Amino acid sequence: MGNHPARILVVEDEESMAEGLRLNLCEEGYRVKLAKDGKEAEKLFSEVDFDLVLLDIMLPYLDGFEVAQRIRSRAAQIPILFLTAVADHESLIQGLSLGGDDYLTKPFHLDELLLRVKGMLRRESWYRDSGRRPVFAFGVNRVDFNDMSCRHGERSFVLTDREAAVLRYFIEERGRIVSRSELLEQVWRVDPTTDTRTVDNFVARLRKFFESSPARPVHFLSSRGLGYRFVAPDLRILPSPGIPP
Is 158 left (phi over 0), alpha (psi -120 to 50) or beta? Predict the structure, then answer.
């Protein structure tokens, strides 16, 4: 974000809601662009360097899932917050699996939306500052928190900001059982009584990335009824790029 006000793309086809979001976000000091359908969202995203996207799912032309996929193909780290009237679990899991970082189900409280936006932008700035971040290795995995580039054996990929934040928390708390509510509170910065299936989905994503056999994990372990534990006896910190070993 640098020194400029955060730029937010709001993709919402309900005009009154879109305008209400724009006014309230502008009052918070953000710069806001509106898109009323998926095609317009894709066009605006290609023209403006946004810091965050608020994305409705039910949209004309291209739905929110398709828009999220196209955004992710261009920008791996930009935070995406789904706004949806669809409350069924499968749809929400689909949205998160396509690269969404979080979701709010309509109707939602404005204060909660503004808190989510603030938290997501704060986490994004952690990855964009000028300081050098650690590079970790464990097993056949390598994670560079400077640009979120990763390797699992010969396979390369890039984490989203939220995926990186969850992984970073697990690394910091390695060996300790971390509850779902703790992750919601410390990483998502939301009420720990919120639906914990979001956490399960992100752990599934980390297993897909970093486990040789996601169905038989050796690093991201479940503790029935308690939460998850990150295990990596060979975890090591590597020199960051540009810094002598």
Answer: beta
